[in-house]
Amino acid sequence: MFRTISALLSTVLVTVLVGCQSSPKAPSPAAQSLVESLAAENPDVVRLTVHQKRADGSGYHAVASTAPSKLGQASDPEDLRAIEKNEVVVLEESGALDITVPICDCGDGKPCAATGVTLKAEPGADRAALEARAKAIAQAVEAGLTKAKG
Fold it and tell me: Please, which residues have CB within 8 angstroms of residue 92's CB and are 6 or more apart in sequence?
């Protein structure tokens, strides 16, 4: 009897402790709300992430993402390349295309952020159409961020 109660209490305690673990907090709640909303509106989006410079200027990181593990993490080389070279970067993933689009003109004609848009892609999918779709989603992110700034 004691073992049964002990096992039951242990199970309850583990469940409570696991439930209390917090998920990573988005560095930008407004951007996080925006990416979650846009991803919900676009069911072909596998992952949507916004990369911006850290407040202390030490580099770029994910300020918002539908992938909690990305939040606050340093931006990947393709994200940096999109920002630094002001070009769209496309990487193939299993069943998807990861398309990083530079956004947010800093006032000097250069981007100061990027949106990583990973879209479902069946074999033989039209890459140009997927890239155009990713650019449209990135433009919606940029418009939302601009609006949030006021």
Answer: 98, 121
Q: Is residue 20 part of a domain?
A: no
H or E segment at 141? helix 127-149
Distance CA 68, CA 64 (A): 9
Residue 125 neighbours by CB distance under 10 Å: 14
Q: Is residue 12 one of the residues assigned to a domain? A: no
Q: Which residues contact 69 (CB under 8 A, 6 or more apart)?
A: 24
- Residue 84, domain CATH: 3.30.450.40
Residue 91 lies in a domain: yes
For residues 78 and 98, is the Cβ–Cβ distance under 8 A? yes
The tokens for 83 are: 């920002």
Sign of CA dihedral 39, 41, 46, 48: negative
Q: pTM here? A: 0.81
User: pLDDT (tens digit, 0 to 9) for every residue of the chain, 150 residues total?
Assistant: 444 434 433 333 333 333 333 445 677 899 999 999 999 999 999 999 999 999 898 899 999 999 999 999 999 999 999 999 999 999 999 999 999 999 987 778 889 999 999 999 998 999 999 999 999 999 999 999 888 776
